[in-house]
């Protein structure tokens, strides 16, 4: 007998996962007949999730339908304490909004059906290769996508937020303070030493928090690598786990962090100009600078959270073991950008 | 026993794993990604090992100097009660304990600076943190150039 294929990293076999998935979908879509799961395949899903692609074929009264799906399963602790349920609701709320995002299909919030908290969404065509988008060539294609990314941001930040009450309330005056409170709490919870430089950064940011131009749905991880593209078109924005209501300047600032910036194809000034031309809310320079500084500290906190997860044995992902080294360039950048 | 030292051991293990185990693992596989991350961490630790204590000692002297200068500016500084670090820390080693204690002292001190002294104190702190960050960054080796993928 051949050994069963293993799902990477957890000892669960793909055969077992297909069985669980079949039972789960049968319960979710009781009216469907002949549910079939084709070609369940592990795909890259980031540091905190396992991702699988599959084709769902099921019978309905009008015949068979075929839905290409992607399944994201939480894989232990990671860089963030993510809320799959909120992410699922955000994607559901965005349906029909014009924001390029995958259609959310089903959720197993507590993992009782599939073995780990899981979201199943429609699989959208395209690739995420952010190294290709930062390469010098093809320059025209990469510039076009960076500008399409500005257009997508404008659509996202002008999307209605009336169905997003589950994300909590935010006001123009307090949204920056609220984000700082969230990330400072994360810092205090996960730090393994006092880190006075990061503590100083929070102190400085709290005394310089700007008023937002408007309250929008903010993606929270808006960057190259977190969207699918096909040709010169963005087909879907991905990874909504940090989505929240807040200042649109936060996403623009994050998109231009050094690790993933599209600056070599579109300078930030041109990106903001395109964003404004596409109908995006006004991005004031002082808000942009504040969120660029905030972004560095947020990324430092994400790194120390990841390192703490590994140090505590809550994840076996070795990519997270030495993640504190990534916090250092963030602190350096914060200090370099700090106004005199 | 002094030799083999940390640099020799950690660096040697990283090289051995890279040369003898990595080639056997399929590109893109979870096992290969785990091993690559382990090699990178070992390599980083080997690079840092010989200079780490000197960098920490330089930090300690630097923090002590800045704390003294900031305290001299404050009228009557009474530090708030110190919170213990939230994690387990690295333990062991006097220089590490000293470093951790001074980090906490700085965190307490900067939280107690009155607004009218911020303009004087902030440059002392930011310059200190920049120097400390530079010392820590100097202990990280440059990344290994990636070998281009070849068709299977």
Task: Walk me through what this model shows.
- The complex is a heterodimer of chains A (340) and B (152).
- Chain A is of the alpha+beta class.
- Helix content of chain A is 40%, strand content 18%.
- Chain A contains 10 helices and 9 strands.
- In chain B, 64% of the residues lie in helices and 0% in strands.
- Chain B is mainly α and 152 residues long.
Summarize the topology.
The complex is a heterodimer of chains A (340) and B (152).
Chain A: H1 14-28, E1 33-43, E2 49-60, E3 63-74, H2 84-94, E4 104-108, E5 118-122, H3 130-134, H4 139-157, H5 175-190, H6 196-207, E6 216-218, E7 227-230, E8 233-237, E9 244-246, H7 249-255, H8 268-277, H9 285-311, H10 324-337
Antiparallel strand pairs in A: 1-2, 2-3, 3-5, 4-5, 6-9, 7-8
Chain B: H1 6-20, H2 30-73, H3 94-111, H4 118-137
Helix pairs in contact in B: 1-2, 2-3, 2-4
List the keywords.
A: 340 residues, alpha+beta, 10 helices, 40% helix, globular, disordered N terminus, B: 152 residues
Write the H/E string of chain A, N to C.
HEEEHEEHHHHEEEEHHHH
Structural class of chain B: mainly alpha
> What average pLDDT do the residues of chain A reach?
92
Calculate the mean pLDDT score of chain B and round it. 87
The helix content of chain A, as a percent range, equals 40-55%
Largest sheet report of chain A: 5 strands, antiparallel
| N to C succession of SSEs of chain B | HHHH
The first-to-last residue Cα distance of chain B is 47 Å
Q: Strand order of the main beta sheet of chain A, please?
A: 1-2-3-5-4
**Could you name the ranges of chain A where pLDDT drops below 50 across 5 or more consecutive residues?**
1-9
SS summary, helix count of chain B: 4
Count every beta strand of chain A, where a strand is a DSSP E run of 2 or more residues.
Answer: 9
Strand content of chain A: 15-25%
Largest interface: A-B, 31 and 32 residues
